[in-house]
Predict the 3D structure of the following.
Amino acid sequence: MSFSGHRNPLIAYLNGSASTEERRQVEHWVRLSPANRQLLHKLRLAPHPEEVIDQEGFQLSTFRRLTEEPEPAESEPEEPHDFVAAAFTTGWWMLGAKVAALLMLLLPVYILFQSQLNALFDQPASVWVETHTPAGETQLLQWADGSRALLYDNSSLRHREGQAEELFLEGMASFEIHHEGLPIRIHIGQAEVLVEDAAFEIRQQTGEIELVVESGSLSVVRNQGDQPVAIRSPQRLTLALQD
């Protein structure tokens, strides 16, 4: 189809009646190739430009196709950001970082605790030792804290090996106790002597117990649940044993 019967943008451009859009189309078409510029120049010189256009076989559809700017490709709509999911993911990441930092801080504590626990279980179980002196003999016992006991004849003393924290006496003995920490407990029948730093003698006789304090002080509990009775040097105390 030729330009005959249709408004020709080129003719309108040449005679000055082109609209703004038509002028834009023609100027764009001229810039497309040197041949287009030559044709426009030829049309300006021709007395009848329409005839030149028909002779060139230039179609209006071709002109429009060449001058129309391609429409931008339709872009796919962007998916909306899932701010909730992003915040959730970020929150988990922050939580993981805090947990990792906490574990790094607790690791030395765990290692120290584990080593102490292993050392505790690796220690051999304490063994109870009982020392007995026959008639006419005595025996001196000493412990690592400096405490010692002189066990008289026909007497016995039971204690944990190497430790003086808890003693069980039957008979008579002299003690020098120098102990730091919890008091040493000495059991005589139903009575119990609590002492930290003192020198004293315990005599267990038929139906009674006699305590003689030479230096320092100690406490005596007659029966379990009773209030302790304090004894200081140079006091003497006799307790009747209950059946």
Notes: Helices lie at 9-15, 20-32, 34-45, 49-56, 60-67, 83-122. The longest helix spans residues 83-122. Residues 1-5, 69-73 have pLDDT under 50 and may be disordered. The chain has six helices and twelve strands.
